[in-house]
């Protein structure tokens, strides 16, 4: 992977960047995504944010190597600390857990006033992001699911608006994704078939465990999720 050819996952993220965006890529690693977006004329300005020293230095070197220091600023800081209010209109956060992405958005929500689009790619727990979007009046306008190198990834794209347009059966749609559920692709089915097997294995272990309030609650939660997923897969 380099600034000319991204991974399939990051290229899918880049495809949702609006034309002439002012972009902030949080957790930018080598700054491949901002460099790609500038070189492909998707974005006119970008911030590459990194909290860890090593990746921060790698991002700086990459931007300098590409000769893009006039259009890409590399900043070290935690989450949206690297962004000034009003500075960007599009934010990408890719390759982290959904809970961490949601916490980054929550802690940096004062920076989102000028932001028109969020492009988020959680490795796990996309439900955490959907809950945050719903609570803060961001509407999912697109969801994508893809497989690369044996791993399945989801991409969530949101804009400020009325989120209730996207969530009719809240619990099921928050878990599975309202737009992914509607599309019901082969990769979507594969992901949830794998999850089903995992939950059923855990359920069998819980059946053998000492009865307690905690194990009873866990069984109820798993059975509810299993039922929702089975219904979705059988649609």
Automatic annotation (TrEMBL):
Coiled-coil stretches noted in the UniProt entry, renumbered to this chain = 189-232
Query: Which keywords does this chain's UniProt record carry?
Result: Coiled coil, Methyltransferase, Transferase
The record's SUPFAM superfamilies line, in alphabetical order, gives: S-adenosyl-L-methionine-dependent methyltransferases
User: What InterPro entries does the database record attribute to this sequence?
Assistant: SAM-dependent_MTases_sf, TrmK
Which GO MF term does the entry hold, naming one?
tRNA (adenine(22)-N1)-methyltransferase activity
Q: Which GO terms describe its biological process?
A: methylation
Q: What is its EC number?
A: 2.1.1.217
Q: Which domain of life is it from?
A: Bacteria
Q: List the protein's name.
A: tRNA (Adenine22-N1)-methyltransferase
Q: Provide the species name.
A: Cytobacillus eiseniae
